[in-house]
Design brief:
The strands form five sheets. Strands 2-1-3-4-11-10-9-6-7 form a nine-stranded mixed β-sheet. The protein is 32% helix and 23% strand. Helix 5 crosses helix 11, helix 6 packs across helix 11 and helix 8 packs antiparallel against helix 9. The longest helix is centred in the middle third of the chain and has 22 residues. It is built from 14 helices and 23 strands. Bound molecules: adenosine-5'-triphosphate, xanthosine-5'-monophosphate, glutamine and magnesium ion. GO terms for molecular function: ATP binding; GMP synthase activity. It comes from Planotetraspora thailandica. It catalyses: XMP + L-glutamine + ATP + H2O = GMP + L-glutamate + AMP + diphosphate + 2 H(+).
Length: 515
């Protein structure tokens, strides 16, 4: 018997399918996503202890709407439907789903009815987060209705004898006050043991890499950030010194970054590291380019070209056909890589990869969120400074210069960025702030007065944000005196900049980076 139980999340095209999986993992039960088109025997091969049906954009009664996989309810595996998944379950079992005109979006008050399993011991009235236009108007036979809202009389149903449960609201979002508790009750009812930890995922990942790479060789795209450091540590455990890490100085790094990464990474891990100065080729490729997606694609392509050169350079050692990247789930979903999700921006390591990629990718963290990766990093014994380092995007300062990227502009931004980082650290805010991009509006000028003379310089934008996982973010309330010190120092010390502004936009609607 496996040491831990598995819960499958059947994805009907939800924005937040991974969020469901992650909430299950927070209950110490392993969880992974499968597409709703996966046949039931394939699901059973994964030996699921329970199944969760996700939300999705379709209406169950529409033509071509994704349906519950045939035969699922006959398997006897306890199943929990959420939103679309709830509607699909109700319909499949003979209930009635319709567009009632009673749409609910956002916070909604839910009234618990009777003594069901999912709401046991929870408040009789609670706030839940809704996002639906269709409703279950008739529960299937054998099911009790266990909650309702003003607009939705059938807001939750259950048939504990069959292990089937469904809710109209989204327990996975933090805005549902007792969402995590509802999920926990389902997992308990399904008999899932809380025995899964990050250690399991590390061990599983090491095993999977061993299977994938066999006795081959790999190079790891190493950035000094937490994601690639954890990925490298996992792959090193799997294949030892058949791994070589490659850190690319693309000229878009921050002040002192190349030296710091080279020094600290090798000291902390003992992994073989090659540092490549490729700044000239990146700058050349970016000359004249202003479109963000174009920049991202160029950077993604140049990265790969550098790795190919490196592959040839270390070939004396034997060929390295595998490329390890610290890709996380948000990189994938924003690049449009989820089932039916939109392309927001092409992350260089996913949507920015060239079509003629010859490497086989090794991405042990592709299903995880940053805070989960940090926990894995701690389990692997990486030093806190590495585990807690703020994220810095692979395309670097290239996507923080709005306009063409040039060597001079990079120098200006590097100085401003170094000052902001120094002052935020000095104020002890590193752990409170997720990250603080500094953005140079290179094509914008404004009039200033300095030393009794007129200036006509550029603004920089400070973009301090707080976040749990980079999927959503809020602007950080940095104390005024800290902002004031940053502003004064930047305008005093960086001649080209005569104005500092603060970005007070959450995500959504803004993204964290400006491009
Ligand atoms: N300068 C670089 N040299 C080599 N590989 C890089 C570089 N920058 C990014 N990468 C690769 O791209 C991946 C994605 O970058 P990303 O910034 O999301 O992750 P990270 O740098 O590892 O962690 P963090 O998000 O904390 O910065 C990295 O994990 C790494 O594999
Ligand atoms: O490796 C990366 N390659 C990229 O192309 C990329 N674009 C954004 N980011 C980082 O991802 C998080 C979410 O950023 P956005 O809100 O701007 O999409 C934030 O932490 C960003 O810094 C990137 N990381
Ligand atoms: N978020 C969802 O799963 C929505 C389900 C369905 N499309 C509705 O509007 O009711
Ligand atoms: Mg990074």
């Amino acid at each position: 018997m496996s040491e831990f139980d598995t819960v499958l999340v059947v994805d009907f095209g939800a924005q937040y399918a991974q969020l469901i999986a992650r909430r299950v993992r927070e209950c110490h039960v392993y969880s992974e996503i499968v597409p709703s088109t996966m046949p039931v025997p394939e699901m059973l091969a994964k030996n699921p202890k329970a199944i969760i049906l996700s939300g999705g954009p379709s209406s169950v009664y529409a033509e071509g709407a994704p349906a519950v996989p045939v035969g699922l309810f006959a398997t006897g595996v306890p199943t929990f439907g959420i939103c679309y998944g709830f509607q699909a379950m109700a319909q499949a079992l003979g209930g009635i789903v319709d567009k009632t005109g009673a749409a609910e979006f956002g916070g909604t008050s839910l009234e618990v009815l009777g003594d069901g399993v999912l709401f046991a011991g929870l408040p009789a009235v609670q706030s839940v987060w809704m996002s639906h236009g269709d409703s279950v108007v008739g529960a299937p036979e054998g099911f009790a209705v266990t909650a309702s809202t003003e607009a939705t009389p059938v807001a939750a149903i259950e048939n504990p004898a069959r292990g089937l449960y469904g809710v109209q609201f989204h327990p996975e979002v933090l805005h549902s006050d007792h969402g995590q508790a509802v999920l926990q009750r389902f997992l308990d009812a399904a008999g899932c043991r809380p025995s899964w930890t990050m250690l399991n995922i590390v061990e599983e990942a090491v095993e999977a890499v061993r299977r994938q790479v066999g006795d081959g060789r790999a190079i790891c795209a190493l950035s000094g950030g937490v994601d690639s450091a954890v990925a490298a540590a996992i792959v090193q455990k799997a294949i030892g010194d058949r791994l070589t890490c490659v850190f690319v100085d693309h000229g878009l790094l921050r002040k002192g970054e190349a030296e710091q990464v080279e020094r600290d990474f090798v000291a902390a891990t003992g992994v073989k590291l090659r540092v490549v100065d490729a700044s000239e080729r990146f700058l050349k490729a970016l000359a004249g380019v202003v479109d963000p997606e174009e920049k991202r694609k160029i950077i993604g392509r140049e990265f790969i070209r550098v790795f190919e050169d490196e592959q040839r350079a270390i070939v004396a050692d034997g060929p390295a056909d595998f490329l390890v990247q610290g890709t996380l789930y948000p990189d994938v979903v924003e690049s449009g890589g989820g089932t039916g999700t939109a392309n927001i921006k092409s992350h260089h390591n996913v949507g920015g990869l060239p079509d003629d990629l010859r490497f086989q990718l090794v991405e042990p963290l592709r299903a995880l969120f940053k805070d989960e990766v940090r926990r894995a990093g701690e389990q692997l014994g990486l030093p806190p400074a590495m585990v807690w380092r703020q994220p810095f995007p692979g395309p670097g300062l290239g996507i923080r210069i709005i306009g063409e990227v040039t060597a001079e502009r990079l120098d200006v931004l590097r100085e401003a960025d170094a000052i902001a980082r120094e002052e935020l650290s000095r104020a002890g805010l590193d752990r409170d702030i997720w990250q603080c991009p500094v953005v140079l509006l290179a094509d914008v000028r404004s009039v200033g007065v300095q030393g009794d003379g007129r200036t006509y310089g550029h603004p920089v934008v400070l973009r301090p944000v707080t976040s749990e996982d980079a999927m959503t973010a809020d602007w950080a309330r940095v104390p005024y005196d800290v902002l004031s010190r940053i502003s004064t120092r930047i305008t005093n010390e960086v001649r080209e900049i005569n104005r500092v502004v603060v970005d007070v936009t959450s995500k959504p609607p803004g993204t964290i980076e400006w491009e």
